Amino acid sequence: MNKLITRVAIAAAFLLSLAVCAQQGSPTRTSIIDVQSATVSIRLLDFSAIPIPNTAVEIYSDNGIVCRKAPCPTNSKQWSGRTDGNGFVTVPTNMLQAATSITTTAYGGDLVKDARRESGGTWSIRLERRD
Fold it and tell me: Is 86 helix (H, G, I), strand (E, B) or coil?
């Protein structure tokens, strides 16, 4: 009987530790959508991590609502800018919504899903080549 109690106690401790780990989950990555300043500077990189300098940039965003019937409260926004000589573009944070794409004539990506905060606090995104 003592062996059974010991086994049950070990199993309970194991299950409890699994539950605690599941609640904690993996550490969450900071999202660019959480930036609190009026603007955010983002370095655009090609998929080989080479900066994309002096390039026109288009951003399109909406709140992610899929419209089935008009009127559609998607809160669509569009913005145009240009990268500097080092591939940085400064974007108004009010452009960042649940669905935010960033494109150039040759590259594109999902700014919310793919932007990464680098160790110096700067943001970067690797864009994919558009066909």
Answer: coil
Alpha-carbon span 30 to 16, nearest angstrom: 29
pLDDT in tens, 92-125: 999 999 999 999 999 999 999 999 999 888 999 9
Per-residue pLDDT, 27:
43
Is 32-129 a CATH 1.10.20 domain? no
| Rounded (10°) CA dihedral 7, 16, 29, 94 | 160
Q: What is the pTM assigned to this prediction?
A: 0.73
8 Å CB contact between 52 and 88: no
Residues 60/80/119/22 CA torsion (nearest 10 deg): -10
Residues sharing a CB contact under 8 Å with residue 103, sequence separation 6 or more, in sequence order: 57, 58, 59, 60, 109, 130
At 74, the pLDDT band (50, 70, 90 cuts) reads: confident
pLDDT at 54: 98
CB 44 within 8 A of CB 89: yes
Task: List the domain boundaries for the chain.
Answer: 32-129
